[in-house]
Amino acid sequence: MRTYDTKLAEFLTSLQLERGASPHTIEAYKRDLIDLGDFVEHVDPDQIEVGVLDDYAVALQDRGLSPATVRRRLAAVRAFLKYRAREGGRPDAGRTVPLPRLGRRLPEPLTPQEAEAIVTSPDASPRGLRDRAMLELMYGAGLRVSELVSLRVSDIDLEEGLVRCIGKGAKQRVVPTGGRAIEAIRIYMQRGRPYLGRMQRGDILFLNHRGQGITRQAVFQLVREHAREAGIEKVVTPHTLRHSFATHLIENGCDLRSVQEMLGHASIETTQVYTHVSVEHVREAYQKAHPRA
Q: Looking at the structure, do residues 47 and 122 belong to the same domain, yes or no?
């Protein structure tokens, strides 16, 4: 059976022979599609579900990539899946992947009540305790999904309520998180993690049922499932929880520089998008409260 890598190699060969693509172009396609392969865990490209492609598009934006870079990577995905369709693979799923517009799209954050409903959705099973701890951390510390899945037990300071993570550009930062997230992690470490898999790998904090590190794709799926269980109809991704973390901090008076530091943004301009969300919040409060509004 041909693997993801084999079918990718066939596609790259077709770019060279059929389209006369330059070595530079072929290398760019290869780089982008290896990244897709890592995200989908190298499943057969003909079996990639549309929902997973949507998750990948969100994950690219969550990494802080520019809209132009995200568009280029998703265009490579489209081209690959169109090729697979022509070669007798599944109908072209790539056409359903939306290319983001060049410009910054304002996030649609959860309300505090919606966020609470999602993070408290998991049950008390080992997997449920794991999910609760992850959801609390994404909302309580604003972590990117890539940062979350690479956390180690040693990265959590339960006494001080601090999380050490490696963000974009391999930059390390320390982020405070709330008491509820720390308590959820403490309970997961006691009653959840020891029961996930017989052969546990190192000190990776969040494990799947086989005792290996949980994947980004799995986190997207569980966030969606718990949002649905909580009765939230809007589309919710790990990035939604990160957006909500920042938005709620700004709305409740946290200064922009502190939010920038906690999110791990290199530039304050990236963080300033949340001031626009805050302005909308203030406007709504004015309309409700002022007699001459």
A: no
User: What is the domain-level CATH number for residue 73?
Assistant: 1.10.150.130
Across 225-245, average pLDDT: 92
- Strand order of the β-sheet with 172-176 is 156-157, 162-166, 172-176
Task: State the sign of the Cα–Cα–Cα–Cα dihedral 90, 25, 98, 170.
Answer: positive
Give the pTM. 0.69
> 89 with 116, same domain?
no
**101, part of any domain:** no
Total number of domains in the chain: 2
* Most confidently modeled range among 91-95, 127-131, 195-199, 213-217: 127-131
Catalytic residue positions, numbered: 144, 168, 239, 242, 265, 274
Range of the domain at 59: 4-96
